[in-house]
Amino acid sequence: MASVQVEKMGKHRDLGESSEELEGYRDGVAVPGRDDLRFIVDVNVGKLAKWLRILGFDTLFINPIDDGDLVDIALREGRVVLTKDTHIAERRLVTSGQVRVLEVEGERVAEQLRFVVDALGLRDRFRPFSRCLEDNLPLQPIERELVRGRVPPYVFRTQERFMVCPRCGRIYWPGTHWQRMREVAGEL
């Protein structure tokens, strides 16, 4: 089943490489490599964004967004569009192979996530809890003493490792919520 969906991602064509272009770009457009697969999630599967971020994937979610803008961002930033909208796959940039689209199956977010993971072979690429769930930026380690007063006292007493979002300042730590999320990821 997954191989059928991968074919729906559009014809993959080599746009050619020029020695004058920056690495990771072709014709001025970002091209993701195997280890830096990036997504933009359509509003009709918006809950996927949080779970892909939990698993460590660079995932944009903009609500509301016009389909044309969604595809333009995907082209400019080398992102795969995740959607249930079959009309997006009919757009010129998709049919020409310049933008990849995965038509997501499943009604519940767990089914959708499992579908995306299987269709794109993502299991060996998980980097759990490495991105901010709000801002999508990579988390950075922060010294324990610097979070004193910014996290509940019990958390400060019982946790040794903390991460911070460089944009919003949200603090993350491996508490029970991380354990529950790991269990979900382990079921994929």
Describe this structure in words.
This protein is 31% helix and 15% strand. The chain is α/β, with parallel strands linked by helices. The chain folds into 2 domains: 2-125, no CATH class; 140-186, no CATH class. It is built from 7 helices and 9 strands; from the N terminus they run αβββαβαβαβαβαββα. It has helices at residues 2-7, 47-54, 67-77, 92-95, 109-120, 153-158, 176-186; strands at residues 25-26, 29-30, 38-41, 58-61, 79-83, 100-103, 140-142, 162-164, 171-172.
Topology:
Layout: H1 2-7, E1 25-26, E2 29-30, E3 38-41, H2 47-54, E4 58-61, H3 67-77, E5 79-83, H4 92-95, E6 100-103, H5 109-120, E7 140-142, H6 153-158, E8 162-164, E9 171-172, H7 176-186
Key terms:
3-stranded antiparallel sheet, single chain, 7 helices, alpha/beta, 188 residues, disordered N terminus, 4-stranded parallel sheet, 2 domains, 9 strands
Question: Can you give me a brief rundown of this structure?
Answer:
This protein has 188 residues and is α/β, with parallel strands linked by helices.
Q: From N to C, what is the helix and strand string?
A: HEEEHEHEHEHEHEEH
**Tally the helices: what do you get?**
7
Given as residue ranges, the uncertain stretches (5+ residues, pLDDT < 50) are 1-34
Helix content: 25-40%
Q: Which band does the percent of strand residues land in? A: 15-25%
Number of domains: 2
Overall average residue pLDDT: 83
Radius of gyration: 18 Å
State the end-to-end distance: 16 Å
Q: Looking across the biggest beta sheet, what order are the strands in? A: 4-3-5-6
Number of DSSP strand runs: 9
* Shape category: elongated
> How is the biggest beta sheet arranged?
4 strands, parallel
Structural class: alpha/beta
